[in-house]
Amino acid sequence: MRAAKILTPDSHVAGSHVATARLHAFYVLTKPRVNSLIVFCAIIGMFLAVPDGLPSPAIVFAATVGIACVAGAAAAMNCLIEAQIDARMSRTRGRPLPRGELTRRETLAFAGALGGSGLLILHQHVNPLTMWLTLATFVGYAVVYTIFLKPRTPQNIVIGGASGAMPPVLGWAAVTGDVSADALLLFLIIFAWTPPHFWSLALYRSADYARAGLPMLPVTHGPEFTRLSVLLYTCILFGVTLLPFATRMSGIPYLIAAIALGGCYLGHAWRLYVDYSDARARRAFRFSILYLFLLFAALLADHYLRF
């Protein structure tokens, strides 16, 4: 007869650690640091869409959960498609798939379940327009950008940035059921922000991208051209961020914040251009994240100060 398996306290602890590690691996697949900024911008879009007062808490909650789920699914699909590339890059080789913590089948099932749940929430508890726009954003990032643009053109982040610029539009559509010119201004801000943000990262990770065979701008056109592009796009971004004031979407408080933040960002871009170092590129990249967070926070504060 087979001997009965004896479960000891240590075996329970080991099982618990394995389960926790797997849950953490699924969590990492969703790229939570990136997606926290995406969800934040979507929430700002929800509040800005209401001219007087506050959006419905139920809509805000359902839209936030739905958008976060689909964004997490898109990130997981990106990890699945780029698993072999990630294994060749020092920045990404610690992700769950290159480390063997999860299988491709598990990742695909997780992305499907998470994305499907998010779309269902948006359709049933928000509105169909938001669901379709979110689905289009998912396809734009996980398919168009990841499969077709990123491995083929140095303009991948410019064209593919349209997907990353959608969150405030999704938030706006969730509350109003349509997409207005003001929502498109929010889209334009993130669209202009994306290239200088990402190229700062690509500058100090260019060896990684070259090793992975990805045609990022510093690899195909060299660091000096990339630094000039960062500076020029930051100038474009500065102008674009003044449009909410020019169209009376926002007021003086936002204008002051946009000029101050834009001036700081231009300072980073200028120093990056005239006196490059990897440390400067890292600082510019990190500041760009803080910049977008503070800019959208200023839009929100201005909205209610004026109200």
What does this protein look like?
This protein has 307 residues and is mainly alpha-helical. It has two domains: 25-178, Tetracycline Repressor, domain 2 (Orthogonal Bundle), CATH 1.10.357.140; 180-306, Up-down Bundle (Four Helix Bundle (Hemerythrin (Met), subunit A)), CATH 1.20.120. Helices cover 80% and strands 0% of the residues. It contains 16 helices and no strands. The longest helix has 29 residues, at 278-306. The mean pLDDT is 94. It comes from Aromatoleum tolulyticum. It is a multi-pass membrane protein. It catalyses: heme b + (2E,6E)-farnesyl diphosphate + H2O = Fe(II)-heme o + diphosphate.
Could you tell me the mean pLDDT? 94
Q: How many helices?
A: 16
Helix-strand string? HHHHHHHHHHHHHHHH
In CATH, the architecture of the largest domain is: Orthogonal Bundle
Helix content: over 70%
Largest sheet: none
Q: Compute the number of strand runs.
A: 0
How many individual domains?
2
CATH superfamily of the largest domain: UbiA prenyltransferase
Specify the CATH class of the largest domain.
Mainly Alpha
Q: State the end-to-end distance.
A: 78 Å
Q: Shape from CA axes?
A: globular
CATH topology of the largest domain: Tetracycline Repressor, domain 2
Q: What structural class results from the helix and strand content?
A: mainly alpha
Radius of gyration, in angstroms, nearest whole number: 21 Å
Name the beta content range: under 5%
Ranges where pLDDT stays below 50 over 5 or more residues in a row are: none
